[in-house]
Amino acid sequence: MDQNSAEWLDEQKRVNKVITVINNKLAAFKGSTSSLKEDIIGLRKNFWEDVTVNIDEPDDVIETYASIKQQAELLSERERSHGQFYKTSKLLQRLKSSPYFGRFDFSEEEGPEESFYIGIGSLMDENDEDFLIYDWRAPVASLYYDYSPGHVSYRTPEEEISGEMTLKRQYVIREGNMEGMFNTGITIGDSLLQKILGSQATTYMKSIVATIQREQNSIIRFEKGSMLIVQGVAGSGKTSVAMQRIAYLLYRHRNQINADQILLFSPNQMFSTYVSSVLPELGEENMQQSTFHEYVKKRLDHEFTVETPFEQLEDKLVSRKKEGVSTEEMMIQFKSGREFKRLIDDYLSALSHTGMLFRNIKFRGQTLITSKEITTYFYQLDSSLALPNRVELVKEWLLHHLQKVEKEEVEKDWAEEEAALLRREDYMEAYESIQKKQFHGEETFDDTVQEERFLRALVVERKLAPLRRQIKRLRFVHLRKIYRQLFDESIKNYEVPTEWEAIRQSSKENLNQKYLPVEDQTPYLYLQDRIEGRKVNASIKYVFMDEAQDYTWFQFHYIQSMFPYAQFTLLGDYHQSIFAHNYGEDTILSPELHEEPPELFELMRSYRSTKQIVEFAKEMVDDGDKIEAFNRQGHLPEVHYTHTEKEHMQALRICAKRRLNEGYQTVAILCKTIEECRQVYNDIGRELQASLIYKETQPFQEGLVILPIYLAKGIEFESVLVFDASDNNFNRKEDRFLLYTACTRAMHVLDIFCKGRMSPFLRTISEDLYIKKTAVQL
Ligand SMILES: Nc1ncnc2c1ncn2[C@@H]1O[C@H](COP(=O)(O)OP(=O)(O)OP(=O)(O)O)[C@@H](O)[C@H]1O
C-alpha cells in the first residue's frame, strides 16, 4: 500500500493516538506504583509496630494472632497489586513500540460495523469505555486467524456469534512507525509470513501471534477433553503452537491458574533455553519446564549412576549392528512397553504375599534389626493392606524401636566418651536447657548429673539422626534387590524377547554395578511408587510434552499417573523417532495406545524451511507426499560427493566458510555421533572458530556450531551441513529418521556431504530436487 495514501496516513494517525493514550496511562501508573511501593516499604518496616503483641492470656494470644494476620494480608494485597501494576506497565511499554499487528472490520448480523485492532494485549481508551486494542486471545480475535473477508463466526464462552467481515489488514509497526500495511486474504499475510520466515534465525524462539495460521489457531484455543495429540511434520509449528497455547490458557483462565500450574516437558535443556523467551515476549510468566531425565535423576541419583537418554542413543549409534535388532535394542523395546508393565504388576501382586526384601538396620557397626526380622514383621501385618500402608507401619515400628535403642545407648561407655569430646557450644546448650527446666519448675536435683545426661543424650541423638532420616525416607526397603529379583528367574506367560536370557543377565549385572540404564529407570520408579506410595501432583493443571514421540509408552503412562488432574497436550512427529524404543512405530502419538480416545490434530504444512528443502526432505519418509511446503523460495539443496576422508573434510570446510561469508548467522554441521563431531571439530572446527556442542546443558549459540543430530532436535539453523550422509553411515531403517531430522533443521540452505555412495534414504530422492556437486566443483 502506498505510504502517502490517505488510508496510510489515517492509520499512522491512529497509531499516534493510541501511543498517546499508552503514554498517559504509563504516566498515571508511575504515580500509583511509586505510592504503592512506598506503602509496601512502610508496611514492611513498621510491621511489628502496627501489631499488638500480647500473649499473657489465651484471649490475648488470639487477638495477637488476628492482628498479625490482618497486617500480613494488607501487605500481601499491596504486594499483589504492585506485581499486577508492574506486569501491566511492562505490557504497555511493549505496546508502545508496536501497539497492534492486525485489524478486521466486522458487523454482527444487522449490527453496526466495527473495527477490531489486534495486539499482544488489550488496551482501553482513556475513559475505559472502548477497546483500542483487543488481546489476540480474546474470543473475537479468533476471526482474525480463522477467516478471510466474508461471512464469519466465532464462539464466546456462552454462544456462537456470526456476521460479516469486510476488511482484514495486517501491519508492521516498529517504534511507533507504520512500516508496512497489507490487506490480506485467507491465510494471514503470505507476504508478511514470507518475510518473517525468510529472516535470520535467533538463538531464542520468537512468538508467532501476528501470523498464527488457521490450523494452528484451532489447537491453540482448544479447550475440551483430557488429552490433545498434535502430530505435526517437521517445522509445522508444534513448539510454537505449544507456547502460544500456554499463553492462551494463562489468559483464558487468568483467575483460576497461574504459570506455575503449567508444566512443559522439553527434550533437553538447550531446548528449554531456546523457548524461554516466548512467554515473556507475550507479557506472560514462563511455565515450569523440565526434562524427564532431570526428574528421574533427582529421584535416583543417590542410589545409581543414571544414564541419560543421549548417552543411551550415542551408545546405540556407535555400537549397533548393520542389520537386525541387537539384544540391547530388544531390551530397550521390551522394557519400554506394556508387557513389561504387566510383568511388574503381577510381580507387585506376588510381593503382597512374599518376596519383599529389606536392608539390615545397623548402628555403629552392629545390626539392630535384621532384614529377616523386618520381613517377618511385614508379612505378619494384615495382608489386605496395600504395600505402601504396610511399609508405613514398618517405618513406625522401626522408629519406635529406635527410641528404645536410644535409651539403651545413652547408658553405654561410648556415649560418655564422646560426650566428653563435645564442643563448647554444646555445653552451652546443655546449660541453657537445664536453666530452662529450672525456670519451668522441673526438678533438677544435681546440675552436673543433669548436664552429663543431657550431653550423652545429645551424642546418641546426633549419632542416630542419619539412621532415623534413612528410615523416614524408607531406605530400609531394598528396592534395588527387589527390582533385581524380577530378573532372577526365567519367566513364563509373558511375551519376552528372544534374547531374554541375555537381557536377564545384563539387567542384573547393571543393578549389581549400581548403574541404571534409561530403559530401567521408569519401571524402577513405577515399582518404587507402588511399593512405597507416592503423592500425586494435584497442582499442575496442564502438562505439555514436546517431541512426544521420544517418550516410551511406560514413561508416558508414568507421567500421566503423576499428574492425574492435568490436561495433556502431546506434540510430536513420528518421522523424527530416533530413539531405540520405537523407531517410528507405536509412538505415544498413536491414539490407539491411549485408554481414553484423545483429540487428534494434524499439522501438515511446514513453515521452517524453504519450499526446495521441504520438497527434498519429504521424499525421505514413507508418507512424505502428505507434507506440504509453505511457498517460500530458496536454493536447491546441494549434495557434495567426495572420495576420500581428506576430500570430505576439505569440502565441508570450504562450504562452511562459504555459508558464513554469505552472512548466515546460525550455521550448523550436524553429525550422527559425538565421536564424529569431535573429529570435525579437531580437523576444521578450531580453524573456523566453531563451537562444539556435545552436552545438552550447553547453551544454543550463534555462528558455526558442530553438534550431533539428536541434540539439534526442536531447534533450527539458517544453514545446515550434514556430515557424512554416505551409504555406510546411514543405512539402517532408523537412520532414515535421523537424516530426516537433520535435513529439516535447515531454514534457508541445506548441504549434504557423502563419502562415496549416498545413503539409500537419499538415493530415492528425485535428482531434480537437488544439485550434485563433486569436490572439484567446490
Ligand atoms: N504461524 C507462523 N508464523 C510464523 N512463523 C511460524 C509459524 N508457524 C511456525 N513458524 C516458524 O516455523 C519454525 C518452526 O516452528 P516450530 O519449531 O514450532 O516447529 P516444530 O513443528 O516444533 O518443528 P520440529 O518438529 O521440526 O522441531 C519456527 O521458526 C517458527 O517460528
Question: How would you characterize this protein structure?
Answer:
With 778 residues, this protein is α/β, with parallel strands linked by helices. The protein has 26 helices and 26 strands. The strands form 6 sheets. Strands 1, 2, 3, 4, 5, 6 and 7 form a 7-stranded mixed beta sheet that branches. A 7-stranded parallel beta sheet has the order 22-23-21-24-25-20-26, sandwiched between helices. Strand 6 (160-174) and strand 7 form a beta hairpin. Helix 5 packs across helix 6 and helix 18 packs antiparallel against helix 19. The two termini are 43 Å apart. It binds adenosine-5'-triphosphate (ATP). Adenosine-5'-triphosphate (ATP) is lined by residues 193, 196-197, 206, 208, 211-213, 216, 232, 234-240, 573, 607-608, 714, 716, 744.
Question: Would you summarize the structure shown here?
Answer:
With 778 residues, this protein is α/β, with parallel strands linked by helices. It contains 26 helices and 26 strands. Strands 1, 2, 3, 4, 5, 6 and 7 form a 7-stranded mixed β-sheet that branches.
